[in-house]
Amino acid sequence: MCVTTKKAIILRYSEIYLKGKNRGFFEKVLLNNIKQKLQSFKYELTRISGRYIITDFDEIFEENIINSLVKVCGLYSISSALQVPNASLEDLISVCKKIKIETENFRVTVNRANKNFRVNSTECSKILGEAVLENNEGLKVNLTSPQTVLNVDLRENGDAFIFYNSIKAVNGMPVGTSSKGLLLLSGGIDSPVAGFMMAKRGMPIEAIHFYSFPYTSELAKQKVIDLAKIMSEYTGNIKIHMVKFTHVQESIHENCNPEYMITLMRRIMMRIAEKIAKQTSCKAIITGESLAQVASQTIESITVTNDVIKTMPVLRPLIGMDKDDITEISKKIGTFETSILPYEDCCTVFLPEHPIIKPKMDKVLKEESKLNIDELIVEALNNTEIIDVNNL
Ligand code: ATP
Ligand code: MG
User: Fold this and answer.
1) In the structure, which protein residues have their CB atom closer than 6 angstroms to any atom of ligand 1?
2) Is the pTM above the cut of 0.90?
């Protein structure tokens, strides 16, 4: 018996399915993002019961398609499958007889969403398991800890999908289902991870980077562009606002108590970030801070830097995370190798020997009064260049 089958890729959504009335909006954004990712491929896409099915693609690109889709926020998992349209039990038996399994043991797991299918899922698993055994000499069934699981998904519309395993995707929410956030992007390990974490909750990302040329090099700037490019595979297009911060740092260095260098610098960074966020319709500022990681990340330091932001929240998705866990995510998303390249960040320029760990607001304000803050900010804003990392 000749059964028509075709290669298919199954895409399962994440928690979008929990959404009530506005689920349609989340699905629409997800679908747009998927299409954006697959721009350069030929394929057909259909939707069946909380999944998308991709078919009619050139099989040599299957791996490339899957590798692109694992980076789409809002997708939970992806399987490479064989679709049996309008499958009868006989069709499935015939397909299963042709399956070669290389491991010593296996099991068949049937998921019967199609309640009209002739036999129930337990019965069906047994019948299809026997069909597989027919042409796999020596293969054993192991129901409790099989080396291979052959999944057979019987969908409501009568189609069946046969697949081995599912690859975990990013999960989370589709980028674009939240308003935009402005990420303070340094060249380190943490801030790209922070941006990724917020994108994974649906937030498009715009970035701001402060550099201190000639104290920091052109290579340090390029590193940030490279990091944003890697992040953009998950977040979609990223624009970076490159702010020349040299004069701000020189002014603090010349006029203020060195212990307050970092605190003052960070308060000015935050003020500039809030201004750019407003200009670009960003509704939040994002940083890669993690409590107690360095002197500028004690709760007292965070309090005095946070104080200058008046109109939007500062999101710190890494605040309770350990460096190991942050590093693990940066390796997973592919930013780690670039992050550890040894170029200076402006935070390390004029670094005091003893930065203040628990700054007091009155002392900070006193130091700050020695600066012409408004002028420094206007000057820095005028010395800002916008780089569209995906159009370079
Ligand atoms: P990272 O690994 O992200 O560089 P870090 O451990 O080096 O973080 P800090 O240097 O204290 O920590 O910076 C804390 C946060 O401040 C960073 O995660 C980032 O969001 C922001 N930040 C630091 N330096 C810069 C910079 N040059 N430009 C933009 N944002 C910065
Ligand atoms: Mg840093």
Assistant:
1) 184-186, 188-191, 208-210, 287-289, 293-294, 296-297, 345-347
2) yes
